[in-house]
Amino acid sequence: MSLVHVHGIGNRHREAFEQRSVVLEALFRRHLLPATGCDAERSTILGPWWGGDIPPLAWNGASLRRAGPEVLGGPGDGDGEDAVRHAVTGLAVVTGAPAAPDRVLITAAATSMAHAIGLLSAAVSAGEDDDVAAVVDFCARATAYCDEVAPDERLLGLSRLSWAKDVEDDEALIDAFADVLAQWTPGPVADGAATAGAWEQFGRVSSTRSALSRPLRRINRAAAAVVAGGMASAARQWVTPTASSLLGDVMAYLACRGTPQQPGAIVTTVTGALDEAAKAASELGEPLVVVAHSMGGNIVHDILSTFRPDLEVDLLVTAGTQVGMFEEQKLFLASDPGLPHADCPKVPALANVRRWINTVDPGDPVGFLAAPVFEGAEDFVFSSGAWWAHSGYLTSPVFHTRLAARVSGSRV
Description:
Layout: E1 2-6, H1 14-30, H2 32-35, E2 44-46, H3 82-95, H4 104-111, H5 113-122, H6 129-149, H7 170-183, H8 196-199, H9 205-229, H10 231-256, H11 265-284, E3 288-293, H12 295-307, E4 313-319, H13 323-328, E5 353-360, E6 377-381, H14 389-392, H15 397-408
Parallel strand pairs: 1-2, 1-3, 3-4, 4-5, 5-6
């Protein structure tokens, strides 16, 4: 099988994008690829970087600057720890106060262990390849454990776990959880979940703790910075990047996407990866899967509906995208201003897409439904309860578990 991941907003810095891509690839191989029935290790995964095709800001982001230390487009913007800072800042905004630097995971887990697991996953750095595999495996096992302990409870808080009642800081929480998982034997495995053999990959507790210690330090550093900067600064830093990135990337794409005869740079970059993946999938006789996040979903829809209607996709997954809203505003090249009408209440399904799953988190302010607008779209509501909902889909082990279950036909 071939999988293409088309990224969303806020990916103008290649090094940070490549770091995140390594983690996402590990999550795709662990969850979604096995759910399709394909060999997760042999499958090709491509991630075209279209962020570099966006024209640079003429004044280097001067219009985004505010009084104080927070500067968008300046030194330090886009480094590998952005996602961690964003998540920790969001936690501070939602709880009303910054968490103590050594109790961030405990604060997150007080509401839901899934939040703490997702934060660990987001904090992995691609510079430590062995750690990526170990942390992704830990998070997958932790997610399955929580599902088994409370299968009908989406928000399993720390108070429900007797082994966690005496933990005093994040390091102690990880130590205790690693001990529990090392002794835990999973129940029957649902279709689309990790196989029983895959659980055997869970490493020694000592090596797992070593791998988890590095993302934990990143979380601690981010929390210390939030404490030092104060709540007002934290709130601005949490809201401004997503809004400004979405606005800037949308305008840049619409201005530069080109035409079918002369496609723009962004379309050319993404189409090149789709063609390469389609060729590999055809040679292996396996399906082509496209996963698009945020603005990436809008780009993919434009490509499949206008630029390359000949390109066949077996499974399209969109997460936190604006495809439904774009069509309501008739922003796609293929948009028909005459729709909807009595005889055609929705946009006809794309003939070249076999299945389309659109995922949206109710807590994501820039993620929209697609099924009310498009025939053939399946809306999958993923209620994470997370404070960094828009950027947290693809780094969430819980999201990948739910998606794999939906793709395989089971329900979790």
